[in-house]
User: Fold Sigma-70 family RNA polymerase sigma factor from Pseudonocardia eucalypti.
Amino acid sequence: MSVDLLQRARMGDRDAFAALVEPHRGELHVHCYRMLGSLQDADDALQETLLAAWLGLDGFAGRASLRTWLYRIATNRCLNLLRSSRRRPPAPDAPPALPEPSSRGEVPWLQPYPDSLLAEPPDQAPGPEARYESREAISLAFVTVVQLLPPNQRAVLLLRDVLGYRASETAELLGLTEDAVTSALQRARAKMNAAQSREAPPPEPGGPEERTLLDRFVAAFTELDVDALVALMTDDAWLRMPPLPFEYRGSEAVREFLGVIRARLRRIDRLVPVRANGQPAWGEYVRDPVTGNLRLIGLIVVTLAGDRVHELVKFETAVAPHFGLPRTLSDQ
Assistant:
């Protein structure tokens, strides 16, 4: 950190402040996303964090790094948002057109995170006490389970096991005792371990095994070939579609759901590849019968396990702009 930049920022130089915080912006945004599970909420939390840092820069004493000071502000802004959130309304019944779900999802606010925002490496590698690799700690499965933790446990887990802060540093960041941090971390780890998938690890991103599996998936999905899709999925595969809370688990439940979709759509006309949360993803397009153009109907993200698909998550089109997916495509 440049002392000159800090001095200029404290004197009201906004360009100097921007230069100070820019190296940390990306990783702070990812941290807010992990805390909140929503890309839009992460945007808001990051903006609040940077505003609070700008207004409170005189309070930065330099005892810790600027990065740690910013993480303190970001984490506490996220905690404030979590504690002020209103109780979620009860999950509605499944529409008559859909089969009865296997369960009701508890994280309807979940949104995917574009890999394009993960392109820049963080300013500083995680500390030596981090337990999760960066790829695992941004996966949809990880972020979903984190959302089920109480706010303090969530913050402690991310600061300790993802960012690698020591117990004493985490206590200082959150205004807790070290005993409270240790207790919260034990409870959070127990919940994470209980929810951890026992499936085979995914193939290497971009490698030949992944490409072969994804080619088969795309061929089956565009044709909505239910038998071929189910054959590609693990026996306990999940199908989710936030913000709708309906979840389908197991090959038979997934088969029944896909059969309903096939009767309604017949086929998907084009899948446009993107990546989300370090995982394969596509924009789904169907042909508009009036204009003949291809119309975006959603974004799907898959979780791979070995040579199978373990989870398929469909998101609404509201997230499309973050992935560079246009609402319509001409068929030229």
